[in-house]
């Protein structure tokens, strides 16, 4: 093999190594980036879309309202019915995530503080826009009222 052929082999090998290295870097970056997120169970949620829309319509028909007060230390939810009376006997769950770190989700049950007020003491360590997905349920099995609400709140 002459000198020119050896140089061409080295150039091609270096080019291929660069391409493979760049691909590994991009794969690593894409799979470890905390700001990138895929919706959990997205395919199943797509299949259940009609059921979710029906649940949202039932939720809206309840006439409940939700007010959120969010800080970096505590999340407070006030629930009231269509007449403005506090809803005191609900079980409330939340899924919360920061818009810049959607793969880092907080899932928890809120504690009942007083009539219509539920809270979660937790360190929401990033200021900025947080999304909160609430599910509030009350009533006996078989006739449970379920309220679904998604709110976005700017946390100072």
Numbering strands along the chain, what is their spatial order in the largest sheet? 1-2-6-5
Overall, the morphology is elongated
Query: So what's the CATH class of the largest domain?
Result: Mainly Beta
- What is the count of β-strands? 8
CATH architecture of the largest domain: Sandwich
Total domain units: 2
Mean pLDDT: 91
Could you please describe the fold and organization of this structure?
By secondary structure, the protein is an alpha+beta fold. It folds into 2 domains: 1-32; 42-155, Immunoglobulins (Immunoglobulin-like, Sandwich). Helices cover 32% and strands 36% of the residues. It has helices at residues 3-32, 42-47, 49-62, and strands at 65-70, 74-80, 91-98, 106-109, 111-114, 117-121, 128-138, 145-155. The strands form 2 sheets. The protein has a 4-stranded antiparallel beta sheet with strand order 1-2-6-5, with no helix packed on it. A 4-stranded antiparallel beta sheet has the order 4-3-7-8. Strand 5 and strand 6 (117-121) form a beta hairpin. The longest helix is centred in the first third of the chain and has 30 residues, at 3-32. It is elongated and about 90 Å long.
Name its key features.
156 residues, alpha+beta, Immunoglobulin-like, 2 domains, 4-stranded antiparallel β-sheet, 8 strands, 36% strand
Could you write a compact summary of the structure shown?
The protein has 156 residues and is of the alpha+beta class. It is built from 3 helices and 8 strands.
């Amino acid at each position: 093999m002459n000198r020119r052929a050896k140089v061409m082999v080295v150039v091609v090998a270096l080019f291929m190594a660069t391409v493979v290295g760049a691909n590994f870097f991009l794969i690593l970056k894409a799979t470890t980036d905390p700001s990138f997120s895929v919706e959990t169970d997205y395919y199943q949620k797509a299949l259940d879309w009609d059921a979710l829309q029906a649940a949202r319509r039932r939720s809206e028909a309840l006439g409940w309202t939700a007010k959120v007060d969010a800080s970096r230390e505590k999340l407070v939810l006030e629930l009231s019915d269509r007449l403005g009376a506090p809803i005191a006997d609900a079980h409330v769950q939340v899924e919360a995530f920061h818009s810049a770190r959607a793969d880092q989700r907080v899932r928890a049950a809120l504690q009942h503080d007083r009539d219509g007020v539920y809270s979660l003491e937790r360190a929401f360590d990033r200021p900025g826009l947080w999304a909160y997905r609430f599910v509030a349920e009350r009533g006996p099995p078989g006739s449970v009222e379920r309220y679904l609400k998604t709110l976005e709140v700017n946390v100072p």
